[in-house]
Specification:
CATH superfamily: Ferritin, core subunit, four-helix bundle
Structural class: mainly alpha
CATH topology: Ferritin
Low-confidence stretches: 4-26
CATH class: Mainly Alpha
Shape: elongated
CATH architecture: Up-down Bundle
Distance between the termini: 26 Å
Number of helices: 6
Largest sheet: none
Oligomer: single chain
């Protein structure tokens, strides 16, 4: 609940700041939404790569192992694309994992068998749902054409990850 309140406060603050800016659709213009999106999407990719590798190595269910390996492959490609865009417009990307996901990693490292698989796949549902909302927000509020193109090209993959995680979660 505290996290949601914090996110709402940040969103409202950003809305006021952004509302004061004029929209310019030239390719070189970006706004705070683009910058925040790049930071959060890069963090999400890094988390998915790390958790995916852990699942590929530690899951007991072969379909969870395969899903984890797919997350590593897809999010590595997505991260490389995002880094190129961010570099081109002079925005740095996140290279560390947030505390919440560090705790998840610590938890997963202590689990075995179906307990690991269950905690991992349900975390994937939550994280991909959050990422879908992030991407949809950027599609409606961002300015930079390359960032928005990244959103439109990547969102179908994120949706597919969510659907796959939902299907896999029915096993647990």
């Amino acid at each position: 609940m505290k996290k949601i309140s914090g996110i709402l406060l940040i969103s409202v603050t950003i809305s006021f700041v952004i509302g004061a800016c004029e929209k310019d659709n030239s390719n070189s213009t970006y706004n705070a939404y683009d910058s925040i999106f790049i930071s959060q999407a890069a963090s999400s990719n890094l988390i998915e790569i790390t958790l995916g590798q852990l699942a590929a190595d530690s899951a007991s269910d072969p379909s969870i192992k395969q899903y984890g390996a797919q997350m590593v492959a897809d999010h590595t490609t997505q991260q490389q694309q995002l880094q190129a865009i961010a570099s081109g417009i002079g925005i740095g990307v996140v290279t560390t994992i947030d505390q919440e996901h560090l705790l998840l990693i610590d938890t997963l490292e202590t689990l075995k068998g179906s307990s690991f698989d269950s905690v991992y796949i349900f975390s994937q549902l939550r994280d991909h749902d959050n990422t879908i909302r992030l991407f949809k927000h950027e599609s409606g509020n961002g300015l930079h054409k390359e960032v928005k193109l990244y959103v439109y090209q990547t969102l179908p993959d994120i949706n597919e990850h969510f659907i796959s995680a939902r299907t896999l979660s029915t096993k647990f």
